[in-house]
Amino acid sequence: MTHDDEATTVRRIWGGLGLPGIIDVHTHFMPKSVMDKVWNYFDSAGPMVGRSWTITYRTDEAARLEALREFGVRRFTSLVYPHKPQMAEWLNQWSAEFARETPDCLATATFYPEPGAADYVASAIRSGTRVFKAHIQVGDYDPNDPLLDEVWGVIEDSGIPVVIHCGSGPQPGRFTGPEPIRRLLRRHPRLTLIIAHMGMPEYRDFLDICLDSVAVHLDTTMAFTAFVDELMPFPAGEQARVRAAGDRIVFGSDFPNIPYGYLEALTAITAVPGIDDAWLRGVLHDNAAHLFGVALPSG
């Protein structure tokens, strides 16, 4: 399938639901030097990936932006994440400039457990950050690290969502899994967390957390796709709870770092058993529009 054909089919799906487009909460734009290192890591099937993984949309930044717009993505993110100290603030500066130049990108920031983190997080909030990214696996840190106490407090008070990769897929880390998140939420119950990848592979536990918490969401990134179902399939018998959590599930794709086309990321969601058009409208657009204050088109 050509890109034009793929874009036409994607637009036909959301258009048929009466939506003005898609909001994708899980996309990656990074400084070129960082993105190149990420892609090289996937190419090598590094230990945090654990299998062959081809980057489908390995193009320059301008082409990637144009692809999302051709798919009809109204808003997206530039999820960045550090793997060492003294990296997050620099990434935040890059992301802020990227958002200023890219009005359809939700201004994104990140953090790391280090002295001064609360200061640069507060600065990012003052500068207009609309979403944070935390990657427990890559960062290899405990979300309950005392160096993050003030960070979580500042973010909780702001109400800004945090897309957090905390499930143990594709490979477990020292601090991944549901228990560290349960401990975090006991201390900061108003945190607006967006659990990446539906919490893969601890889907049931993270559904529990979502349904039991005040403001926890799940993003669909890579869930339900054939690529993931080979090793970490979504558990059968959870359809009713997936429907029940429908107002707090948002669409994510992991673009451009996916080993299949954007259309497959979308059709995997539309094929979830037991869902209806109202559920799809919420997941693909309306839930995130509400969460991020994205206005619906008039008329």
UniProtKB/TrEMBL annotation:
The keyword Lyase applies. The keyword Hydrolase applies. It holds the Pfam family Amidohydro_2. It comes from the Bacteria. InterPro entries: ACMSD, Amidohydro-rel, Metal_Hydrolase. Residues 23-293 form the Amidohydrolase-related domain. One of its GO terms (cellular component) is cytoplasm. One of its GO terms (biological process) is secondary metabolic process. This is Amidohydrolase. GO terms for molecular function: carboxy-lyase activity; hydrolase activity.
